[in-house]
Amino acid sequence: MNEELTRQFLNACHESRRICELLPDLPPRIKPRHIRIIECIYRLHQKGGTVRVSDVAEAMNSTMPSITKLVNELCAMEVVRKRQGRSDRRVFTLTLTDLGKHYYDVYVTGFQGWLCQEMQDIPEDDIKAMVAMVGKVKNILLKARAEYGPLK
Asked: Which CATH number fits domain 3-121: 1.10.20.10, 3.40.367.20, 2.60.120.10, 1.10.10.10?
């Protein structure tokens, strides 16, 4: 790989970040990360029923404090319901409220379904290659950071 191709790759990464700015407008106080948590709770619930805050943190590869903060925000907006466990009071289970299910239907199912249709002309292999390549580059950078610390 040469420097010009590396530059083009980094420019494409910046453009992909700008794609997130083109996502549908969200309701007041709702952040894109909230939608990701709503999606995560929905999918985990579909798989196994009970969803704990720690399950969401693990599935999103995030820290408990950051997920707890976002979940508490969603609870305050009545998007997520958090219940304390009966046998272990330290464990909280999460469910989507009707509003949370509505947000899932509109901002996950609806938008992703529409985008899927719009992307029909892009070969699946191209999309799979892009997803795999972004993951590989992320791993390269994570490994470099672990070995050498942040680049300066």
From this structure: 1.10.10.10
